[in-house]
Amino acid sequence: MLLEMRKAARLSNVELPGDDSLRRMVREWSAGRRGLSEFYAGLLSSVFTTEFAAGAASEPSDAFITAQVEGLEMRLSAASKVDVTTVALLEQQTEVLRGLDRRLGAMHLLKQTQQHVVQLSDLLAFSMRGETRRLLGIATAEAAALAGWQALDLGDTAESWKLHEVAKSAARDAGNAAVLAHVSAQQAYALLDAEKTAEAVECMRAARRQAQGQVPALLESWLWAAEAEALAALGDAKAARHALDQAASKLQAEAPNADMPFIFLDATHLGRWRGHCLARLGAAEAVEELTASLDRMDSSFARAVAGLRTDLAMAHAVRGEHDEARHQAGLALELANQTASNRQRKRLSRLLASGLQLAR
If DSSP codes are grouped into helix, strand and coil, which group holds residue 55? Predict the structure, then answer.
């Protein structure tokens, strides 16, 4: 019911109160302790296709009670029709959104992904079947984490955080340690972007430690690399290099795990990650690491290439190679604009506003 109310409210560009407040309002309407405003009367009428009148508090009407019962029955019925094949189709939809996001960026996809998350969350909330509910939990967590990453790329750290909370809750419901570790560590990027670097390190470290021995080596490698990035942002070169070495030792040469489509990590991507960390630390070898990764990089990862070129601009500037730094920054900005990546634009703005004097 709450999800349907929120969807209806968003059509009027209205953001409803938090779930706890909204539930309390519904209970008070049902008990007759609270009257309906014109707005909420119209909202409930659109959700339940039954006329609700605005006015002072009164005994709950038969129509309201009937609408609630029918609404529950409708959602339980819809969820009961979901089977393993249906969940697979929903996950295919997530994969399509993930592929489009890599190529086009988040600007035109976030709302679509958010609606996908709403649909999955609604099915999960009213699902009672064991295995289907578990699979729906995994699918919901993966979709919510994708939406959270898109929100982060557009610069909305608060929305990103909330979507990752949805992802963590669904992953816990599913009892899936790998998905929970991934979405928990990824949520910490909102802390990094909010310049709460020490807190980001702690969140990533906690996710890695909790997952240790319970998840595939590929994910352990990803978790170590994410922690290395946070440590590099913190300026802890020794710990960052150690984490990168751990990531390399865990990385397997085989193809990505089919059970973890949300993880893109191979030698090329880890090299890009290592180069990013080294560039943040001002290490001289960052240019060689990043250049090698750029030569091997799949160009369909447009946003990732923008980040890589931003790192290259930083690394060249540190070495005093300002012409090449300017060139890489310009290419990075073109890609960031193509994908509407506010996150990469912000990094480039900081780079150009720093004392590296790229405009000479």
Answer: strand
Tokens 């557009």 appear where?
154
Name the residue ranges covered by the structural domains of the chain.
Answer: 2-80
Cβ atoms of 302 and 102 within 8 Å: the answer is yes
Average pLDDT over residues 195-212: 96
**In whole angstroms, what is the distance from residue 87 CA to residue 92 CA?**
9
Burial class (CB in 10 A: 0-12, 13-18, 19+), 272: buried
Can you give the pTM of this predicted structure? 0.75
Q: How many helices (H) and strands (E) does the chain have?
A: 17, 0
Over its C-alpha atoms, the chain yields an Rg (Å, rounded) of 23
| Pairwise CA distance, residues 269 & 218, whole Å | 12
Residues 92-120 pLDDT 10s: 999 999 999 888 888 889 999 999 999 89
Q: Specify the DSSP class assigned to residue 171.
A: H
Q: Are 219 and 210 in contact (CB under 8 A)?
A: no
Task: Quote the strand ranges of the chain, DSSP E.
Answer: none
Q: What is the Cα–Cα distance from 17 to 11, expressed in whole angstroms?
A: 16
Q: What is the rounded end-to-end Cα distance, in angstroms, of the chain?
A: 59
Of 15 and 191, the structure prediction assigns the larger pLDDT to 191
Give the mean model confidence (pLDDT) for residues 166-187.
95
Cα torsion angle, 60, 63, 69, 71, sign: negative
